[in-house]
Design a protein that fits this description.
The complex is a heterodimer of chains A (322) and B (380). Chain A has eight helices and twelve strands. Chain A has 322 residues and is α+β, with helices and mostly antiparallel strands. In chain A, strand 5 and strand 6 form a beta hairpin. In chain B, helix 4 packs antiparallel against helix 13 and helix 5 runs antiparallel to helix 6. The chains are: A alpha+beta (322), B mainly alpha (380).
Chain lengths: 322, 380
């Protein structure tokens, strides 16, 4: 009897260690790679003029409603769209950073800067890893993270998981959905691309293959301050280029490595954390979590062994009673 | 020791407390209807930053841990063969059954697209590496297992002897599964927030969160058995099973000792313990949580204290509070989606939770009065 109980204890303690195993430098789930034909957006805060045409284009081409954050009586015509942050009605937003007198653009003290926020289309998205019903999926080819309302159960675990708070939920609807930027993938078939890039007048948002966007971003970091550079407009390979004066960049491409990498890359003259972007480790939270899950449930060996041990112990101990 | 067969305790169903509880239940039902017509936002203060509120933190995460009595007792009696505790099993099982069932109902109210909930088990949708998938599947299966484990009480009541025999032969299978499932999902409930990474304060975000949740759930299981035994004894004017409960409480200090050791060893190892001394809500809640763990551990270390009903009762309450505060800290206090987001439950949200607790207590009272659950009174 006692020997058997010890056997069970071994199993129990063994799986306890598995539960505790997490700090190992080797992850049970390997790092995810950028999809082969990954497309994305490069946003350059230094040349963004905050005109919000991208916000308007996003609403128009994704058929999203206008949002009234403030509605004083004189705006009762409901024509104005004035969201203050991303929401279930606003998938793309331009926000402003202002410090002190707010005089100089792209400076963090006594200056101002713009920031465009929407889904990062992470290489290893936490939302996709978290979703219990595969309602959020990353396209294996172009890497777009998209949502399927017919799969979603509305548990909102994607919202808990996303480090950028991107998925939004329709709390005021009886039959709600999750809303998020899908890079206008519904327009890809007609040869179109993200509306926010198509209508950006200065080239602050450009669309293209992530490899090309990264090359362009790295090139901009080597530019000389004060010189003129021909910034491509709308797409990275655009023939239409707009010469603009180069201002100082923070020597970092946000999204290149953050949280395991993303398909939305950002450049800025003001530190990214001041623009409201989180400081993240290069290891994706999805990778950490799945590593633990895959260790505990590796080929279901631990749970099955534990169950076998339990069945044996319970059988022995209830048999004695009769 | 002569085992006392469980018996229905009888008595009137509709009592004054029962009426008070039913008032809460009616209000909750009304608000739940409102939620289904006008959406979750119409009754809660949930937001895109705080998508989970007290329905998840209390009804599900704390609620199922409070409902670990059946799990903890099954572990002790059937796995570690401590048959002497057998009289405590059935009442613990009943409380677990209601705790989990109502947690299941709460989840159903909380999820936005409940009519598609069955997608979880459709192979084209199941996402096996999601922690939520595991929790959802384990919890729902365990609810069914608990009802099956409880069927002998119905069969005894309605004198179905053939079925009773079949059930008692197959019982070991359900008992074993009934130990496996909570081991899996009580640890995974902690792992749920692991993917939230830096959104959870380093005081709570740790690689050991699954282990900490599992150990604390088992101690909460023992504590709730002690707590419920005393409360039923008081409410029904019976003698509490002090001898048995004090023996049971002896298992708690070593378990909590391991918990506290892992908790602090991990914090010191990561160099985050100093965050506890920074003042502010998070730090103070951390201190409160750990005092609630340390005090009952010290009380129960002494065999003299363990033999005193008052000390047992106080320790049980402190440990239940400790587990509850720990879980609230992980899911709400220590969770920060970034600047600008705030959460405090709305009145309706709280009323729905209170209503669900009321339904749980009412159902428990009806069951112990009508079905053989509690051990019969010893006549000396």
């Amino acid at each position: 009897m006692d020997i058997k109980r010890r056997d069970f204890l071994k199993v129990a303690v063994g799986s306890g260690f598995l539960l505790a195993a997490g700090e190992s430098p080797v992850y049970a789930r390997p790092q995810k790679k950028m999809p082969p034909n990954a497309v994305g957006i490069l946003y350059d805060s230094t040349i963004c003029i905050g005109c919000k045409v991208c916000q308007f284009a996003c609403k128009k081409y994704n058929k999203m409603p206008v949002e009234h954050t403030f509605r004083p009586p004189e705006m009762a015509d409901r024509l104005w769209d004035n969201p203050t942050d991303l929401s279930d009605k606003t998938l793309n937003i331009i926000k402003a950073y202002k410090h002190g007198t707010g005089e100089t653009k792209n400076t963090d003290t006594d200056g101002f800067a713009f920031i465009k926020r929407h889904c990062m289309h992470c290489v290893d998205p936490a939302c996709v890893s978290a979703c219990p019903v595969s309602a959020l999926k990353k396209d294996p080819q172009n890497g777009v993270v998209s949502y399927n309302k017919d799969a979603c159960i509305g548990c909102r675990y994607c919202q808990i998981a996303c480090p950028f708070n991107i998925p939004k939920f329709e709390f005021d609807k009886a039959f709600p959905q999750i809303r998020k930027c899908q890079l206008c993938d519904h327009r890809f078939a007609e040869g179109k691309y993200s509306a926010c890039c198509e209508f950006c007048p200065t080239g602050a948002s450009i669309f293209g293959p992530v490899i090309e966007l990264l090359k362009e971003a790295k090139k901009r970091l080597t530019l000389t301050l004060g010189e003129y550079y021909e910034y491509p407009v709308a797409t990275v390979d655009s023939k239409f280029k707009l010469p603009q004066k180069v201002s100082a960049y923070i020597n970092h491409i946000y999204g290149e490595k953050e949280g395991g990498g993303a398909q939305y890359l950002l450049l800025s003259g003001v530190p990214f954390d001041k623009l409201g972007l989180p400081i993240l480790s290069e290891i994706a939270d999805a990778q950490r979590t799945e590593s633990i899950q895959r260790t505990i449930y590796y080929k279901m060996i631990a749970p099955v062994t534990l169950l076998a041990g339990l069945l044996y112990a319970v059988y022995r101990n209830t048999k004695d009673k009769e | 020791m002569i085992e006392n067969k469980p018996e229905p305790i009888g008595g009137k169903i509709v009592t004054k407390p029962f009426l008070v509880f039913s008032l809460f239940a009616v209000i909750a039902v009304f608000l739940i209807i409102k939620r289904f017509i006008f959406g979750i936002g119409s009754v809660t203060h949930l937001s895109d930053g705080y998508p989970w509120g007290i329905w998840i933190a209390y009804d599900v995460v704390v609620g199922t841990a409070f409902a670990c009595g059946g799990y903890a007792m099954a572990l002790l009696v059937y796995v570690f063969n401590k048959g002497e505790f057998h009289p405590l099993v059935r009442p613990a099982l009943l409380a677990s059954m209601f705790g989990y069932t109502l947690a299941g109902i709460s989840i159903f109210i909380d999820v936005g697209r409940y009519w598609q909930a069955y997608n979880l088990v459709l192979p084209q949708f199941s996402q096996l590496y999601s922690v939520m998938f595991e929790v959802a599947l384990c919890v729902s299966t365990y609810i069914i297992v608990l009802w099956i484990e409880f069927t002998p009480a119905f069969l005894e009541k309605f004198k179905k002897e053939r079925l009773q025999k079949i059930m008692s032969r197959a019982a070991f299978i359900f008992i074993a599964i009934g130990v496996l499932l909570p081991t899996m999902h009580q640890s995974s409930l902690g792992l749920l927030v692991y993917i939230a990474g830096q959104k959870v304060s380093p005081l709570w975000q740790t690689n050991f969160i699954a282990l900490l949740f599992l150990i604390s759930a088992i101690t909460m299981g023992f504590s709730i058995v002690i707590f419920e035994s005393f409360v039923s004894a008081m409410a029904l004017k019976r003698e509490p099973e002090t001898t048995l409960l004090s023996k049971l409480s002896a298992y708690i200090p070593p378990l909590l000792g391991i918990y506290i050791a892992v908790r602090f060893w991990d914090l010191v190892g990561r160099g985050k313990l100093e965050l506890a001394l920074t003042g502010g809500l998070e730090a103070n809640m951390f201190i409160l949580e750990n005092l609630l763990y340390i005090i009952p551990t010290i009380i129960l270390l002494s065999p003299i204290n363990r033999s005193k009903p008052r000390m047992l009762f106080i320790s049980a309450i402190l440990m239940l509070l400790a587990g509850a505060v720990y879980r609230f800290n992980v899911f709400l206090i220590g969770f920060s989606p970034g600047p600008g987001w705030h959460y405090f439950p709305s009145f309706s949200e709280i009323m729905i939770t209170l209503g669900i607790i009321s339904i749980e207590i009412m159902a428990y009272m009806v069951f112990i009065k009508k079905l053989p659950v509690l051990p019969s009174i010893r006549h000396t």
